[in-house]
């Protein structure tokens, strides 16, 4: 049963903000992390951010520096880009 502690939970948390753009970004990052079977701590360590920062990003929280979001996205094989509406 020890393995259950080392696998990502497929748990949806409450959004940390009301901003739909941040929430969508966080959901995409969390989904990619879970699909890849990685824990928040593992991704955070590899991206050079704290686990609490990754948690904030995944829950659409504001106040996270863009370079940290980009580092997490890159670690998960994603890139951040802007497009026309």
TrEMBL record:
SUPFAM superfamilies: lambda repressor-like DNA-binding domains (SSF47413). Residues 1-21 are annotated as: Disordered. Residues 40-83 form the HTH cro/C1-type domain. Gene3D superfamilies: lambda repressor-like DNA-binding domains (1.10.260.40). Transmembrane segments: none annotated. CDD domains: HTH_XRE (cd00093). This is HTH cro/C1-type domain-containing protein. It comes from Corynebacterium jeddahense.
